[in-house]
């Protein structure tokens, strides 16, 4: 029976035609397991996952394997990107049982959902033996199986949550830098050995802390390696080696959104032409490859095409010559280090250094990209995920302002408009949509936090107070529904579906932890409003950073970055002036060029003598309905637009020139 055909998840739709009798996650599957008195087989993955495809082709498309699954289990297929809460609780069990994790994740559970056997990818012969063995154990040794499931749940639920400490201090952050230096690779950048993942959140912390060696070495190495698409822009998920040479080719929205923001901040901090080029190419890649017809952003591009990982991206010297001719082909092979770095004599393009002839490089890249467009493209997972789109909104808004690309800000506005229209209702968020149609899964902590962060950044870029107001609504829900009562946050709301464990993880993974993302958004909102409730909640959420900084700083990068901003103020800039006035625009953009940790920007028109709001500003020196408190009382100076540099609403004398604003922001 095809129960996946109406799913909004491209991953579930990939399995709709399997001979496996798949159920989507839901009570119907659990009820069926109880009715049949059989265990659950829960398979968790995502559409861009290479090994998920391998297991699907080997096992889920095989009639004999499907028969074993259907006869002995109720089979549930879960998209981890739609249900991160389900993924989180079963990944905890998988890691506890096997000391490792990954996808596809394969979990055998009781009809109550208690896991009793877990693993990841299984080759078909091994998987068939496992199916037979576990069905036999269920039939012949049920008591042991049930006891195992109960023990796993008991252990996971009794595990102490990460202890919390005080708000991090300067000493805490210095300790974190020392801890990061212990695992830093000074030659190839990054931290630790293979595989290497882009350490986006850690790099943001290092840039905010003025640590140029570790951040700059890593950012340059990634930009010149195979993990970065040297033709089309955008970063792959990770590098399988320690030198950033051979990527795992899937490209994720969240990685590229985070890295876009980091490369923009690196350029702002002196990263030079390389930082600017990579930031703009990554932004253009996001718009070209991931933007959906509705204005959102698709979640991922697949690693595979034509059944082979990386086939779309790799080259041989012969292929280069075929496209470019012998002379340019040989030159390109040298410039891009085409020396058989991948499989079957192919290579992933790298750019170890800029060649002496930039015009020739541009021509070669243009021709190779055009030729590559004729290849079979990797699949695209076109569902829109609220939290990841929030990361993209923040990155595009800031990059558009800093690098003078208003089209990027416009793209951020379109994405925010889609989320406002499709994902938000009565202050609550739905996590996903596809083709403009909302999914049914509730937003989780990272959705509320990352979208609020993006909306605050978008307000700062546009002066549109609707985004500020929506951010405040989401943060109020976050505080009311996700708080754990001790300063932290659960990853699911208090009225979300009850799993055997309520997930809560304050550490970063591929994206900022929901808790640290919440801290960042709350801190920025407090900077715009003066709200002690939001500021105190932000500080409390950073308490676990103090615990992680000494030995596990790599898993607290975003918390460290937010703590850096909190200790710095954060600095607030209120720009007041008619939006069409070039003097307003110059002051506004100047604020985005400042290398200031966690800078928060407010933009609005001046108040008129009659108390009416001019161009969306504040009235009577006060706050208009829905206005931004940081703008209260901020006026033009001698009729000229002005910028106010503040901390905690205490401001320095207003300035009217970009030079004076630059000087104030540099003098912290």
Question: What report would you give on this structure?
Answer:
α15 (386-402) packs antiparallel against α16, α16 (406-423) crosses α17 (445-462) and α17 (445-462) runs parallel beside α19. Strands 1-3-2-4-5 form a 5-stranded mixed β-sheet, sandwiched between helices. A 4-stranded mixed β-sheet has the order 19-18-20-21, sandwiched between helices. The protein is of the alpha+beta class and 668 residues long. Helices cover 49% and strands 10% of the residues. It has 24 helices and 21 strands. It is globular, with a radius of gyration of 26 Å. The longest helix is centred in the middle third of the chain and has 38 residues, at 253-290. β6 and β7 (247-248) form a beta hairpin.
Helical region count? 24
- Helix-strand makeup class: alpha+beta
How many β-strands, per DSSP? 21
Provide the spatial order of strands within the biggest beta sheet. Answer: 1-3-2-4-5
Roughly what percent helix?
40-55%
Low-confidence blocks of residues? 608-625
General form: globular
Percentage beta strand: 5-15%
Largest sheet: 5 strands, mixed
In quaternary terms, these chains amount to single chain
Instruction: Compute the average pLDDT.
Output: 93
Distance between the termini: 65 Å
| Rg (CA only) | 26 Å
């Amino acid at each position: 029976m095809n129960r996946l055909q109406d799913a909004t998840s491209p991953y579930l739709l990939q399995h709709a035609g399997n001979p496996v009798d798949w159920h989507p996650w839901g009570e119907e599957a659990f009820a069926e397991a109880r009715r049949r008195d059989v265990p659950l087989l829960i398979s968790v993955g995502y559409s861009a996952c290479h090994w998920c495809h391998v297991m699907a082709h080997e096992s889920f498309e095989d009639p004999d394997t499907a028969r074993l699954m259907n006869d002995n289990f109720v089979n549930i297929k879960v998209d981890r990107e739609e249900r991160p809460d389900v993924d989180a609780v079963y990944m905890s069990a998988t890691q506890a049982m096997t000391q490792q994790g990954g996808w596809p994740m394969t979990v055998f559970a009781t009809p109550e959902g208690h896991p009793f056997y877990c693993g990841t990818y299984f080759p078909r012969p091994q998987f068939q033996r496992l199916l037979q063995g576990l069905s036999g154990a269920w039939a012949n040794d049920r008591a042991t199986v049930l006891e195992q499931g109960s023990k796993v749940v008991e252990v996971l639920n009794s595990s102490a949550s990460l202890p919390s400490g005080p708000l991090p201090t300067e000493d805490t952050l210095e300790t974190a830098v020392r801890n990061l230096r212990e695992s830093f690779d000074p030659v190839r950048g990054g931290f630790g050995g293979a595989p290497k993942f882009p350490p986006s959140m850690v790099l943001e912390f290092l840039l905010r802390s003025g640590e140029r060696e570790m951040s700059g070495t890593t950012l340059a190495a990634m930009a010149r390696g195979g993990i970065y698409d040297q033709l089309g822009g955008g970063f792959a998920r990770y590098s399988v080696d320690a030198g950033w040479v051979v990527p795992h080719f899937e490209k994720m929205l969240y990685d590229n959104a985070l890295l876009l923001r980091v490369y923009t901040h690196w350029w702002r901090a002196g990263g030079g032409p390389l930082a600017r080029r990579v930031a703009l190419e990554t932004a253009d890649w996001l718009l070209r490859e991931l933007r959906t017809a509705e204005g959102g952003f698709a979640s991922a591009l697949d690693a595979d095409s034509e059944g082979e990982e990386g086939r779309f991206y790799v080259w041989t010297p012969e292929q280069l010559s075929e496209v470019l001719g012998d002379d340019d082909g040989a030159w390109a092979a040298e410039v891009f280090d085409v020396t058989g770095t991948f499989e079957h004599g192919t290579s992933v393009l790298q750019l170890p250094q800029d060649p002496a002839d930039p015009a020739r490089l541009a021509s070669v890249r243009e021709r190779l990209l055009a030729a590559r467009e004729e290849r079979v493209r990797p699949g695209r997972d076109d569902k829109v995920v609220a939290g990841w789109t929030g990361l993209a909104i923040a990155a595009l808004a800031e990059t558009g302002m800093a690098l003078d690309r208003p089209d990027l800000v416009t793209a951020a506005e379109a994405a925010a408009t889609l989320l406002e229209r499709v994902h938000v209702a009565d202050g609550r968020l739905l996590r996903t949509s596809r083709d403009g149609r909302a999914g049914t899964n509730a937003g989780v902590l990272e959705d509320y936090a990352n979208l609020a962060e993006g909306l605050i950044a978008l307000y700062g870029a546009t002066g549109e107070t609707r985004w500020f107001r929506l951010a405040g609504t989401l943060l109020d829900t976050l505080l009311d529904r996700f708080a754990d009562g001790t300063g932290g946050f659960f990853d699911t709301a208090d009225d979300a579906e009850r799993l055997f464990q309520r997930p809560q993880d304050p550490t970063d993974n591929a994206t900022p932890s929901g808790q640290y993302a919440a801290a960042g958004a709350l801190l920025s909102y407090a900077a715009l409003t003066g709200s002690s409730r939001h500021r105190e909640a932000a500080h409390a959420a950073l308490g676990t950073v103090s615990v992680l900084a000494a030995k596990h700083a790599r898993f607290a990068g975003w918390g460290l970055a937010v703590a850096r901003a909190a200790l710095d103020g954060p600095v607030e800039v209120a720009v007041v002036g008619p939006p069409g006035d070039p003097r307003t625009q110059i002051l506004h953009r100047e604020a985005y060029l400042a290398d200031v940790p966690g800078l928060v920007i407010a933009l609005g028109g001046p108040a008129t003598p009659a108390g009416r709001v001019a161009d969306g500003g504040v009235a009577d020196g006060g706050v208009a309905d829905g206005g931004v408190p940081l703008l209260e009382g901020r006026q033009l100076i001698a009729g000229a637009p002005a910028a106010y540099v503040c901390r905690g609403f205490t401001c320095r004398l207003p300035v009217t020139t970009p030079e004076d604003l630059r000087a104030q922001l540099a003098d912290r």
